[in-house]
Write a structure and sequence with these properties.
Elements lengths: L7 E5 L24 E7 L5 E6 L6 E4 L5 E7 L9
Antiparallel strand pairs: 1-3, 2-5, 3-4
Length: 85
């Protein structure tokens, strides 16, 4: 069964530096289940805008951290790319 590899890059959309943190189980070049919904979450400064960019998305998903600094997005993963099969 082929694996679907995805690099996830998290970055902020504002020019200032923020303290965005991820759980230790999330990181770049992690393997995700294809054709499913994946929850990405973490912590930032309250009100901070966080963008989640995946190689199969046309544009990053943006989310604003709540009053406690928590944020999360549910992203639908893509199909297996033809060049990876």
């Amino acid at each position: 069964m082929p694996r679907y590899l995805a690099a996830i890059l998290l970055f902020i959309t504002t020019p200032c530096m923020a303290d965005i943190r991820l759980p230790k189980i999330l990181g770049s070049k992690m393997v995700l289940q294809r054709e499913s919904k994946v929850k990405i979450w973490g912590w930032a400064d309250p009100g901070e805008v966080v963008a989640v960019d995946c190689d199969w998305l046309e544009e990053p998903w943006s989310v604003e951290a709540d009053a406690d600094g928590n944020w999360q997005v549910s992203i639908k993963t893509g199909k297996l790319a033809a060049h990876m099969s």
